[in-house]
């Protein structure tokens, strides 16, 4: 708050510092009573300790202003309670007193007394011990003595001198006015004057109370002898006496406040008792853990709208020692001026929610700044202050230090968070991360040596005592610039010396004080001892030892570079002076700068982080950086080569180094389907568990923590060689189990293998054949196949036979439309002719592909006998499969028949569209795993449809054990690849599965196919449809924000999916929503599609896909209106083949409406060459499958595919998200539920926000 009255402001500011004025904010003024003439006022105030005190102000209308308070404040001048009352009476103080110009500077101790018009009363008096009840009865009026027993008043001392006391009485009774009693001591009497109007024949009640009060004052009306004794005692505290003539030059005495005080005429003279009290300074420069922590980085204990301008509001507080938050930041935004020079209007505070919901309002760079600022906002800081042992200003300093370099001019303002922030009360400030610098001089004076603090601000050096630098703990303020203190220790040192910028000690005590304060201080700051002579020599390298002292502080290891000269330890990064005493003479010696620079370079060459730390008084690394690639081993060896001693290594509790080299032994034994790799790693007599070894190997960390807490170092080459083994193998207690299918892992163990065993011989043979894939034994096309196989299909047949030879299962993953079914039918016929298989093959397919398989077997190999194990008639079967080559069933039928099917052993089990079993916890997966067969195959055009984890179930089905257990695969492969985008791990997985997976694309093997073009077809919704979309988008965005806050992200995702589905339905047609089925406004997509089918596509045949069956029905209605013939297929369609044949062969039927899920696979529709995807699907692989119904072998026309997207909606964002999910595999993308599960809070809100 501000004081406007000049007289009152001068009085307050002459007698207070900014700290006292800021503390007055917390004071409550309870009761304000003015005298009838408004010349004085009495107030009751409640202090920060909840005690009530009485404050008086005099001279409000004329003369000198004076004041008093009944609090125990004993620093002289004005207390915070008086300041708070001054704010309240500001408007009542006369502004133009003609006498004030003639008066001297107003100070509290100068109080001009005016006696009342009544005469004083005089009573006999010797000393206060004579003030007894009998004495009062003798000289007081009867009415006064009647009141004396119960009369209550707050008494405060206005002035107390050896012969004069002025008291103020504030009665507890509303009917009695405040009174002033003045007592003046004469030789043998006491003169009393009261401001009340009582007759002065006897003492009034106020005078009685005043006498009772002074009878309890130990220093009231002292004798001359008592005063001299007190002065002697006060001077003795500083090592002086009244007999010393110099004492008058440096000391005076003040008895005005009742308690005798010594007044220092020379700043900073220390009491003798304070000589040893150097802890506040020295603790800051000693390198203990708490001190160093303050200098290290803080470690936590784990429709396009107009773009807004942003700024950061800084609120500075003046708390001592940094125990409370010294700075609070407030992120702000507002509309900018036309010239972008600052805010124009609509300034508002940005909270955490805004950074998510309204992120589109901010530039990318601004978001980073705002997030950093929000970390130091009141909400964040208040929460941290409640956590025990959190050094809140350490946290604030670390964040602000990283923020300042990002702030341009005009981005920082000083604000008062207690008031609404407007353009008027925002004060532009300049922030600098270039700290001020403290330095000191020691100067010789008459009786003292004076330690004088200096501060250098922006290159200009001044005495600290002469500079106004503000009272914030973390910043130095100079004019409009705030300079951030370099660290908390510096801030504490500066705060201490701001209170005492000059310290004086007696000359005879200097040596002691040099050792206790000045020497420790010089280790951090420049200290120039002017009276010491500079000896004409510098330190020679021969008399110096180079040393490194290590200290562990939280998660950092601190390196202090020390030069030892005799008993003196010199930190080479400090300005410390070297002092030498010869024959009682003390000298300064020049430091050897070139030697020290070489020493520093020897250290900074060890690690790139050290280069940037030379401004500190030490170097530091995190524990992780220290042990990474065993850095400390080579670093310490280098230091020793330079003759540098290392101290403190044995005390680093987090880093106990085991000096033994590891003894590693490996052996491999083989079983039926497994290799057991026995591994032993021993450091000295300490064995390493395989579980711990795996953690280090997978993390590629050479160090490993041993059972005694020490750290062992693994050989780098061994680590690189066996990472694959530990990632893919199943770690047991004393061995790693490797499946016979894990060929690349077995190959890495070549030296340890027993090459005489049958299993290893088998492995070597497979390895050789894989290297010569093109020369795999060629298989003749078996008799009975009525088709001409292309070259790549023949290679597929050869590959299937190769796998069969060694008993391996496989995944045929050719692109859709390249004839996977034909290759398998040909392979079955080959087995029938050459190997005379006894058991039938079981082929499991989606319902939509039953007809396709039956037709292709009939067309290409009618000699294969097929049993169609689907439909209700199968219940009549005895499940006797004799005479059948193939048993054909669906995934749905399998679940009903699994109990009977698993009683049979099949030759091959083949899963078509095998992504159907990608979930290892599904009933389908468990059912197919329970079936018996000699071997297994899976067929899919999208082996990785959802994410990397999709491949696990399919490859485990064909080759059990290949990818280990579920948890291991998630941890070692799926998470690193999908979440961390780790390409090296992806390569490892590729090596594991590549021998068992064959994939060819159309680009590789079907180059004769015509081109395929995919385009986005943008649609713009009409006003009614757009308004409905906006309403639902806003509704769900606000709802989801609240839901996420209430129940968390995980439990909110079902509502996310619901919201996204409704928005996508509105984009198609609002009639798809159940709650507004009577909606009559048009659907832009149906309108645009009708135009395309009627006018744009000519005689071309067209496939129209939609996820929503109801949308297909709406399109049907429109086609019927326009008399456009069509075919229709969804999940309920029975006569699928009849529908397909009709579309393929009837030239009048140009349009085929197809449900995306029901018709996305298994259909051959090469008559079509136009495809419309009415609504975008989360998974582009599914969209590609739909397009490939017509883009496959046999297509001879150019294919045009259009994705219909409503502009400015969630559909645009779906397309963008699809693009960003194609990094590790062209097909890695999420489907509905799993896609939503992977979304973060920010990406969810983004989906429900207007696109830029």
UniProtKB/TrEMBL annotation:
Short name of any one Pfam family annotated for the protein: SNF2-rel_dom
CDD domains named among the record's database cross-references: DEXQc_arch_SWI2_SNF2, SF2_C_SNF
Keywords in alphabetical order: ATP-binding, Helicase, Hydrolase, Nucleotide-binding
Domain Helicase C-terminal: 1085-1240
Helicase ATP-binding domain span: 801-961
GO molecular function terms attached to this record: ATP binding; helicase activity; hydrolase activity; zinc ion binding
Domain SWIM-type per the UniProt entry, residue ranges: 53-90, 179-215
InterPro entries: Helicase_ATP-bd, Helicase_C-like, Helicase_SWF/SNF/SWI_bac, P-loop_NTPase, SNF2-like_sf, SNF2/RAD54-like_C, SNF2_N, Znf_SWIM
PANTHER family tied to this protein: SNF2/RAD54 HELICASE FAMILY
Protein's name in the database: DEAD/DEAH box helicase-like protein
Species: hydrothermal vent metagenome
């Amino acid at each position: 708050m501000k004081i406007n009255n000049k007289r009152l402001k001068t009085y307050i500011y002459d007698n207070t510092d900014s700290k006292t004025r800021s503390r007055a904010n917390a004071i409550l003024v309870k009761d304000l009573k003015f005298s009838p003439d408004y010349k004085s006022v009495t107030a009751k105030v409640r202090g920060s300790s909840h005690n009530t005190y009485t404050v008086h102000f005099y001279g409000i209308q004329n003369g000198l202003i004076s004041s008093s308070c009944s609090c125990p404040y004993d620093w002289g001048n004005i207390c915070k309670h008086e300041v708070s009352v001054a704010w309240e009476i500001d408007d009542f103080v006369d502004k133009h007193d003609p006498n004030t110009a003639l008066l001297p500077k107003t100070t509290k101790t100068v109080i001009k007394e005016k006696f009342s018009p009544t005469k004083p009363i005089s009573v006999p008096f010797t000393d206060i011990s004579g003030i007894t009840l009998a004495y009062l009865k003798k000289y007081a009026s009867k009415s006064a003595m009647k009141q004396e027993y119960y009369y209550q008043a707050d008494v405060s001392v206005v002035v107390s001198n050896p012969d004069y006391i002025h008291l103020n009485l504030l009665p507890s009774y509303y009917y009695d006015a405040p009174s002033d009693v003045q007592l003046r001591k004469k030789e043998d009497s006491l003169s009393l004057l009261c401001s009340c109007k009582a007759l002065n024949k006897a003492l009034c009640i106020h005078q009685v109370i005043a006498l009772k009060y002074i009878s309890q004052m130990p220093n009231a009306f002292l004798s001359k002898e008592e005063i001299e004794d007190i002065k002697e005692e006060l001077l003795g505290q500083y090592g002086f006496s009244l007999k010393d003539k110099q004492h008058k030059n440096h000391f005076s005495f003040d008895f005005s406040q009742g308690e005798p005080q010594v007044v220092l005429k020379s700043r900073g003279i220390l009491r003798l008792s304070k000589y040893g009290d150097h802890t506040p300074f020295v603790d800051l420069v000693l390198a203990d853990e708490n001190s160093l922590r303050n200098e290290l980085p803080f470690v936590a204990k784990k429709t396009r709208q107009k773009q807004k301008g942003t700024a950061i509001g800084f609120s500075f507080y003046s708390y001592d020692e940094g125990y409370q938050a010294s700075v609070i930041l407030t992120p702000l935004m507002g509309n900018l001026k036309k010239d972008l020079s600052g805010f124009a209007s609509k300034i508002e505070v940005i909270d955490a929610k805004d950074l998510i919901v309204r992120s589109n309002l901010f530039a990318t760079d601004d978001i980073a700044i705002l997030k950093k600022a929000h970390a130091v906002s009141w909400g964040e800081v208040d929460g941290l202050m409640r956590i025990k042992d959190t050094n809140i200003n350490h946290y604030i300093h670390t964040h602000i230090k990283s923020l300042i370099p990002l702030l341009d001019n005009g981005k920082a303002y000083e604000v008062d968070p207690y008031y609404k922030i407007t353009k008027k009360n925002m004060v532009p400030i300049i922030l600098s991360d270039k700290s001020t610098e403290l330095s000191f001089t020691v100067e010789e004076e008459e009786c003292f040596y004076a330690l004088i603090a200096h501060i250098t601000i922006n290159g200009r050096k001044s005495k600290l005592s002469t500079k106004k630098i503000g009272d914030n703990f973390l910043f130095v303020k100079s004019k409009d610039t705030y300079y951030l203190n370099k660290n908390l220790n510096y801030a504490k040192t500066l705060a201490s010396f701001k209170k005492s910028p000059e310290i004086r000690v007696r000359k005879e005590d200097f040596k002691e004080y040099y050792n206790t304060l000045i020497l420790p201080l010089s280790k951090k700051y420049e200290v120039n001892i002017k009276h010491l002579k500079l000896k004409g020599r510098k330190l020679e390298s021969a008399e110096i030892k180079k040393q490194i002292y290590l200290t562990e502080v939280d998660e950092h290891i601190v390196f202090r570079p020390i030069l030892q000269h005799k008993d003196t330890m010199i930190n080479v990064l400090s300005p410390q002076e070297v002092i030498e005493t010869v024959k009682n003479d003390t000298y300064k010696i020049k430091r050897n700068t070139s030697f020290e620079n070489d020493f520093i370079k020897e250290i900074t060459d060890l690690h790139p982080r050290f280069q940037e730390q030379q401004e500190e008084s030490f170097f530091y690394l995190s524990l992780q950086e220290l042990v990474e690639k065993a850095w400390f081993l080579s670093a310490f060896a280098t230091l020793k080569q330079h003759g540098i001693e290392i101290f403190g290594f044995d005390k680093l509790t987090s880093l106990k180094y085991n000096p033994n080299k590891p003894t590693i032994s490996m052996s491999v034994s083989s079983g039926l389907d497994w290799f057991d790799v026995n591994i032993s790693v021993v450091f000295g007599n300490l064995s390493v568990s395989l579980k711990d070894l795996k953690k280090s190997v997978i993390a590629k960390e050479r160090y490993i923590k041993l059972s005694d807490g020490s750290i062992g170092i693994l050989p780098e080459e061994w680590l690189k060689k066996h990472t694959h083994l530990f990632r893919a193998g199943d770690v047991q207690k004393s061995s790693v189990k490797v499946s016979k299918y894990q060929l690349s892992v077995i190959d890495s163990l070549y030296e340890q293998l027993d090459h005489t065993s049958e299993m290893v011989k088998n492995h070597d043979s497979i390895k050789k054949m894989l290297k010569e894939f093109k020369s795999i034994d060629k298989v003749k096309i078996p008799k009975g196949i009525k088709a001409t196989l292309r070259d790549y299909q023949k290679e597929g047949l050869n590959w299937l036979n190769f796998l069969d030879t060694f008993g391996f299962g496989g995944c045929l993953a050719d692109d859709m439309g390249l004839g996977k079914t034909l290759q398998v039918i040909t392979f079955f016929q080959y087995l029938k002719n050459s190997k005379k298989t006894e058991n039938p093959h079981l082929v499991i397919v989606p319902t939509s592909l039953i007809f396709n398989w039956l037709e292709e077997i009939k067309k290409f190999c009618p000699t294969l006998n097929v049993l169609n194990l689907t439909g209700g008639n199968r219940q009549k079967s005895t499940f006797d499969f004799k005479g059948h080559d193939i048993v054909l069933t669906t995934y749905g039928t399998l679940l009903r028949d699994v109990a009977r099917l698993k009683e049979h052993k099949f030759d091959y089990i083949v899963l078509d569209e095998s992504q159907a079993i990608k979930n290892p916890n599904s009933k389908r997966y468990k059912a197919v795993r329970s079936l018996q067969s000699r071997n297994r195959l899976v067929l899919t055009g999208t082996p990785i449809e959802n994410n990397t984890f999709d491949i696990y179930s399919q490859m485990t089905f064909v080759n059990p054990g290949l990818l280990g257990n579920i948890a291991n695969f998630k941890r070692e492969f799926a998470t690193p690849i999908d979440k961390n985008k780790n390409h090296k791990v992806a390569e490892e997985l590729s090596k594991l599965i590549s021998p068992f997976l064959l994939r060819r694309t159309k680009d590789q093997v079907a180059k004769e196919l015509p081109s395929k073009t995919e385009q986005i077809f943008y649609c713009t919704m009409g006003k009614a449809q757009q308004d409905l979309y906006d309403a639902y988008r806003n509704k769900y965005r606000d709802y989801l924000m609240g839901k996420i806050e209430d129940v968390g992200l995980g439990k909110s995702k079902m509502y996310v999916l619901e919201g996204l589905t409704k928005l996508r339905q509105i984009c198609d047609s609002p009639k798809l929503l159940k709650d507004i089925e009577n909606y009559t406004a048009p659907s832009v997509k149906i309108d645009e599609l009708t135009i395309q089918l009627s006018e744009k596509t000519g005689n071309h045949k067209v496939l129209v896909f939609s996820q929503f069956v109801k949308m297909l029905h709406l399109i049907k209605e429109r086609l019927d209106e326009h008399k456009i013939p069509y075919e229709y297929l969804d999940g309920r369609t029975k006569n699928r083949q009849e529908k397909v044949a009709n579309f393929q062969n009837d030239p009048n039927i140009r349009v085929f409406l197809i449900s995306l899920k029901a018709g996305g696979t298994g259909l051959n529709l090469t008559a079509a060459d136009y495809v419309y995807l009415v609504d975008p699907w989360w998974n582009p692989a599914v969209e590609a499958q739909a397009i490939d119904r017509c883009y496959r072998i046999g297509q001879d026309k150019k294919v045009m595919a259009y994705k219909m997207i409503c502009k400015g909606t969630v559909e645009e964002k779906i397309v963008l998200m699809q693009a960003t999910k194609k990094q590790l595999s062209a097909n890695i993308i999420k489907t509905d539920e799993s896609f939503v599960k992977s979304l973060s809070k920010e990406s969810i809100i983004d989906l429900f926000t207007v696109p830029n």
